[in-house]
Amino acid sequence: MKERIATPSRTKEIIEQNDFYFKKNFGQNFLIDSNILEKIVACAQVTEDDCVLEIGPGIGSLTQVLAEHAHSVVAVEIDSTLIPILSQTLEGYDNIEIRNQDILKTDVDALIQEKNNGRPMKVVANLPYYITTPIIMDLLEQKHKIESITVMVQKEVAERMQAGPKEKEYGALSIAVQYYCDAHLDLIVQPSCFMPRPKVASAVITLRVLPQRKVQVADETLFFHLVKCAFGQRRKTLLNALHNQGNLGLDKETLTQIFTQLGWDVRVRGEALSITDFAALTEAVAAAQQKI
Ligand code: SAM
């Protein structure tokens, strides 16, 4: 085992030797606690058969530990000033490829095809917090071959991803993530484990992509539109939210009939409905729209 990059003294040394400065706009908070890194890799269940995609390697702290457990690692880093640093810190590892790219502009399908012969890959990352949701939703929605996503995110975002009906954190993100995955909050990580320290606590969450969507709906766009509408106006009843903001082309009487048909109180709010309920609502709304 090589000397760990993720210690306060080694990280400081690398930063100083390379005159590197942290870029806030790239969400650069580097992990300096090796125990946390080992835990992340264990939660991701990385084995020597895996080719892992890492997003944002930074100075290579997580990349190093991944490379010691996986068959190979492809790490996509946007900041060009980190590329020469990474070739120094990860010298001697022959199973790592660094790509200087923006993950949101990367052709992930082509990457999976090239690096893993099209077989599903695991994604493991300490994500830049300013684009956590776009990165995760892009990976899930684009139907890439992803087996699982184990990521460090803001604690509050992790809680939203795994929340269920009636929980305070439950919302459109919970449903969007759970439509594609089983979500499991693995561990909470304190700001002292990073350099520089973020203002908020963080958490590691694992999203295991389901072989099929959690619910089957004929019209995915309508499903997500209804979810967005329900949570966009949390204080309103779902009926009023759909009537006022839904643009569904259905009058209040028809919406009331749908609620009765589904066995719901007309005062129900979106936050009380499960993902299965939203699927049932989608089918009922689509059927009513076909009649007009
Ligand atoms: N993995 C390192 C660690 O754990 O110490 C660094 C994590 S740091 C929170 C996030 C990393 O993502 C930074 O290195 C940052 O430059 C990189 N990054 C930010 N936006 C990115 C993007 N759009 N595509 C790829 N990398 C990005």
Explain what this protein looks like in three dimensions.
This protein folds into two domains: 202 residues, Rossmann fold (3-Layer(aba) Sandwich); 71 residues, rRNA adenine dimethylase, C-terminal domain (Helicase, Ruva Protein, domain 3, Orthogonal Bundle). By secondary structure, it is of the alpha/beta class. The radius of gyration is 22 Å and the shape is elongated. The mean pLDDT is 96. Helix 6 links the parallel strand 5 and strand 6. Helix 2 packs across helix 3. Helix content is 41%, strand content 18%. The relative contact order is 0.10. The chain has a seven-stranded mixed beta sheet, sandwiched between helices. A two-stranded antiparallel ribbon has the order 1-8. It is built from twelve helices and nine strands. The chain binds S-adenosylmethionine.
Q: Gist?
A:
With 292 residues, this protein is of the alpha/beta class.
Low-confidence stretches: none
> What's the shape?
elongated
CATH topological fold name of the largest domain: Rossmann fold
- Counted by DSSP, the helix tally is 12
Q: Looking at the chains present, what oligomeric state does this protein adopt?
A: single chain
Number of strands: 9
CATH H-level homologous superfamily name of the largest domain: Vaccinia Virus protein VP39
- Under CATH at level 1, the class of the largest domain stands as Alpha Beta
Structural class: alpha/beta
Largest sheet: 7 strands, mixed
Radius of gyration: 22 Å
* CATH architecture label name of the largest domain: 3-Layer(aba) Sandwich
Can you give the mean pLDDT?
A: 96
Number of domains: 2
First-last Cα distance: 68 Å
In the sheet with the most strands, the strands line up as 4-3-2-5-6-9-7
Strand percentage lies at 15-25%
